[in-house]
């Protein structure tokens, strides 16, 4: 920070206050020195004159000492007042610069400005922190080294079902939170609070502030989030289930009514057998479609835990593309050659996932379907590329039973993603990134560590 007064260390001059003290001291000593000089020069003066001269010198010296005292002490009073204001947290006072203590006053003024700025920043940060904690759905508790509560946000108050002033100073044991401060620092636990019970994610960590220890405890109600997601999933599933079931039941109900009307006619028409046969065929076909739909639902709901083992992606892809089930309609499925790549997974489940993705591509393609694999970081990526119209603009592609194809079941993509996620991987379906029409399905899995050396 630039200074208005040059520093004595830079100019080589004595500071103004030191010059004032030195000059005033010489002036105070001047009468005594002058009287002593006169006594030395004229030692034969009369005793009365000599004592008069000494008394005058003493009086003048006392007066000058008082004058010097004020000149030295009063600026120090000003300096002490500024320092006292800083000590009391009043950063608004400023000293007049340019006086005998100009350099010191300037530094104190600069310090006061800096402290005032830091206090403003601190207050703004504290206000922002308070607003942030108030907006959090997670309950936040801060305890001191004796495990007594020092800070809680509104979510924590609601969890404990108590007002803030009744909580401060209580120990973690008194609040029923002592058990949450023990064990793993990040875990999910069942717990009953005064304001709520259920499944919570609990995180705690050690703190240190002002040379003292403390504890931070964050409690998040994951049960509520899971319930909301579960409710949304059920709503989506019921919409699809209702649509598919109605698609089968409506023609069954209609045909059953038609056959009942036909059977009530007397006499029966000559072609009643053919009408009954065709009506029963419609009922049987729609009942079979409904049975297949429910079977597909059961496949998704009862997917077993994968039995993992070492798999070579190259061999897995080669086996899938040779299966007639993977390329209906005589579409050509061409695997691009790649290096061996090991993953850990269930061969049967991953084979089924790839069959679903390849079938989806061959049903959409007008020509060739290409399959390739590669290592991308710590992932083994399998890509299936087709030249069809591309994926539809919908966010429901992986929703069970959602389909845009006539006669489609809506199971393939959902089952492929479920299998991949059970292997800690994933599936995506996007438009091709080379500017050509078509879709790119990507299935990725974690690689085995030894696959890097193959």
TrEMBL record:
Q: Which EC number applies?
A: 2.7.13.3
Residue ranges occupied by any Histidine kinase domain in the UniProt entry: 240-449
- Membrane spanning stretches: 21-42
Asked whether the UniProt record includes Metal-binding among its keywords, one would answer no
Q: What class of enzyme is it?
A: transferase
**PANTHER family in the cross-refs:** HISTIDINE KINASE (PTHR43065:SF51), SENSOR HISTIDINE KINASE (PTHR43065)
Q: What is this protein called?
A: histidine kinase
Tell me what organism the protein belongs to: Frateuria flava
Where is the organism placed in the taxonomic lineage, from the top?
A: Bacteria, Pseudomonadati, Pseudomonadota, Gammaproteobacteria, Lysobacterales
């Amino acid at each position: 920070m630039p200074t208005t007064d040059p520093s004595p260390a830079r100019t080589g001059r004595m500071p103004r206050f030191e010059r004032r003290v030195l000059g005033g001291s010489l002036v105070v000593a001047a009468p005594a020195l002058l009287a002593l000089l006169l006594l030395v020069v004229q030692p034969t003066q009369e005793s009365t004159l000599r004592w008069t001269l000494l008394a005058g010198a003493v009086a003048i010296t006392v007066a000058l000492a008082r004058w010097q005292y004020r000149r030295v002490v009063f600026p120090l009073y000003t300096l002490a007042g500024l320092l006292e204001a800083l000590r009391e947290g009043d950063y608004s006072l400023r000293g007049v610069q340019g006086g005998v203590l100009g350099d010191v006053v300037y530094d104190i003024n600069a310090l006061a400005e800096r402290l005032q700025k830091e206090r403003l920043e601190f207050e703004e940060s504290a206000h922002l922190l308070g607003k942030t904690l108030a907006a959090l759905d997670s309950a936040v508790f801060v305890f001191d080294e004796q495990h007594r509560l020092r800070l809680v946000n509104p979510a924590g108050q609601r969890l404990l079902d108590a007002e803030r002033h009744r909580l401060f100073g209580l120990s973690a044991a008194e609040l029923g939170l002592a058990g949450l401060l023990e064990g793993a620092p990040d875990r999910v636990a069942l717990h009953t609070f005064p304001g709520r019970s259920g499944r919570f994610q609990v995180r705690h960590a050690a703190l240190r502030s002002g040379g003292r220890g403390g504890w931070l405890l964050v409690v998040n109600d994951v049960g509520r989030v899971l319930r909301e997601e579960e409710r949304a999933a059920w709503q989506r599933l019921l919409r699809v289930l209702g649509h598919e079931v109605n698609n089968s039941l409506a023609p069954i109900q209609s045909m059953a009514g038609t056959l009942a009307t036909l059977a009530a006619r007397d006499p029966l028409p000559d072609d009643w057998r053919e009408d009954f046969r065709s009506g029963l065929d419609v009922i049987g076909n729609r009942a079979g479609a409904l049975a297949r739909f429910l079977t597909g639902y059961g496949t998704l709901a009862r997917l077993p835990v994968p039995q993992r083992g070492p798999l070579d992606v190259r061999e897995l892809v080669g086996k899938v593309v040779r299966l007639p089930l993977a390329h209906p309609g005589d579409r050509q499925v061409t695997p691009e050659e790649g290096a061996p790549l090991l993953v850990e997974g269930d061969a049967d489940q991953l084979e089924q996932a790839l069959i679903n993705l390849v079938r989806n591509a061959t049903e959409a393609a007008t020509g060739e379907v290409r399959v390739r694999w590669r290592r991308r970081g710590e992932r083994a990526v399998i890509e299936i590329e087709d030249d069809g119209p591309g994926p539809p603009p919908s966010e429901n592609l992986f929703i069970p039973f959602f389909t845009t194809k006539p006669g489609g079941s809506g199971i393939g993509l959902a089952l492929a993603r479920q299998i991949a996620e059970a292997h800690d991987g994933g599936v995506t379906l996007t438009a091709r990134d080379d500017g050509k029409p078509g879709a790119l399905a990507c299935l990725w899995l974690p690689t085995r560590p030894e696959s890097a050396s193959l």
